Amino acid sequence: MTSRSVDREDPDRLYIVTGGRSRVDEDSIDIVSLIVSECDPTPGMQSEHVKILRMCTNPMAVVEIAAELGLPVSVVKILLCDLLDTGRITARHPTAAPAKTKLPEPAILKQVLLGLENL
Amino acid sequence: MDLKTSDRVTAPLRSTASNGLKIVIVGGFGVGKTTMVRSVSEIRPLSTEEVMTRAGVGIDDAAGVRDKTTTTVAFDFGRISLNDQMVLYLFGAPGQQRFWFLWDRLFSGTLGAVVLVDTRRVEDSWYAIDRLEHHGMPFIVARNDFGGPAYRLEDIRKALDLSEDIPLIDCDARERDSSKKVLITLVNHLYSLSTAQTGGR
Ligand SMILES: Nc1nc2c(ncn2[C@@H]2O[C@H](COP(=O)(O)OP(=O)(O)OP(=O)(O)O)[C@@H](O)[C@H]2O)c(=O)[nH]1
Ligand SMILES: [Mg+2]
Questions:
Q1: Residues B132-187: tens digit of each pLDDT
Q2: Which of B52, B89, B95, B114 has the most CB atoms at less than 10 Å from its CB?
Q3: Is the CB of B39 inside a 6 Å radius of any atom of ligand 1?
Q4: How far apart are CA A103 and CA A45, in angstroms?
């Protein structure tokens, strides 16, 4: 899938999609945070929210949601913050690399190796 | 457009999946990043993008965005379920300059990186290697063989000014086993770095 370029996207449309929100603790959401729906969509819900709730009946990474919706990652994070705020979704955040400059524990890397070798 | 379940671009993850991990494959234009992602991914590569507003764009990129309010960087990715909990996401990322402004936002917490090198254009990798070092991101280098002149790996190491402790290997990004070996080499490298770090404490 080739996603649309946002350069050509109407800024008003992006504004509408995110409800004009820009105050977001989106830093807490990683691009590989796994999102899980905690409820069904309800009538009158914004269509992007509906799509996300439908998509995430099984865990789905933020980047996958972005690719499916054809929206930039930062816009998707804002949508997710809304849903998180209202408890409609939960997020399973990565635990491998707690600090920016710290390497993951050897035990975690061993598990990664094992997974790769079993491919 | 209404997508049927079978048309969905991503097959669902296991319900127990809880820990997403990242590895980034960087390299110059056409060096085989997407090919490598495709050869090991359990889903076909997806593509997405990130935008940055003018205010967040670095000085040397400002000229390029004079008439725009945003700049966009596209990247593609694939996925490997490692076990019931861990899911590894592989990102193919362009080595171009503006991409690195988004590194912290997109790729902080990345385990490590693979720098793909085409020996016909070794200089394309200089910038990527420099940036990874700047970000303190561990990496290995893989030569994707396009059948150019048969340089020895040690010559490539010299051309890249790569220190001896950074693994440098050959690969064919089209081959699943070869790409798998590249990832295993990277994680082995991270493992020794991590053990050294833990042991040194
Ligand atoms: N001979 C040979 N060709 C390869 C190899 N890997 C990739 N290719 C080919 O090289 C071309 C470019 O590969 P891509 O995977 O699209 O490269 P990329 O780095 O994603 O390119 P951009 O995203 O455009 O920068 C494709 O036609 C591949 O089939 C390889 O190991 N050997
Ligand atoms: Mg590509």
A1: 999 999 999 999 988 767 789 999 999 999 999 999 999 999 999 999 999 999 99
A2: B114
A3: no
A4: 41
Q: Is the CB of B131 under 6 A from ligand 1?
A: no
Q: Is B193 exposed, middle or buried (0-12, 13-18, 19+ CB in 10 A)?
A: middle
Distances in whole angstroms, Cα of residue B97 to Cα of each of A51, A102, B28, B60, B170: 34, 25, 11, 9, 26
Query: How many domains would you assign to chain A?
Result: 1
Within chain B, which residues score under 70 in pLDDT?
1-10, 53-69, 148, 199-201
Please give the structure tokens belonging to residue B27: 């390299």
CA-to-CA distance for B91 and A28, rounded, in angstroms? 20
Look at the alpha carbons of A103, A104, A110, A113 in this order and tell me if their dihedral is positive or negative: negative
Domain spanning B16-197 has what CATH number? 3.40.50.300
Q: Would you list the DSSP string of A14-54?
A: HHHHTTT-----GGG--TTPEEEE-S---TT--HHHHHHHH
Residue A8 main-chain phi, psi, to 5 deg: -95, -5
ipTM at complex level:
0.85
| Ligand closest to the CA atom of residue B115 | 1
Spans of all domains in chain B: 16-197
Instruction: Provide the whole-model pTM.
Output: 0.86
Query: By the 8 A CB rule, do A77 and A33 touch?
Result: no
Is B35 close to ligand 1, i.e. is its CB under 6 Å away? yes
State the residue range of the domain holding A88.
5-117
Q: How far is the CA of B32 from the centre of ligand 1 (A)?
A: 3
Q: Identify the CA nearest to B187 among candidates B86, B94, B97.
A: B86
Residue B120 is predicted with a pLDDT of: 84
Query: Whose atoms come closest to the Cα of B121: which ligand?
Result: 1
Nearest to A30 among B79, B109, B183 (CB): B109
Name residue B183's amino acid: L
Pocket test for ligand 1, best of B33, B35, B99 (most atoms within 8 A of CB): B35
Cβ separation of B10 and A114 shorter than 8 Å? no
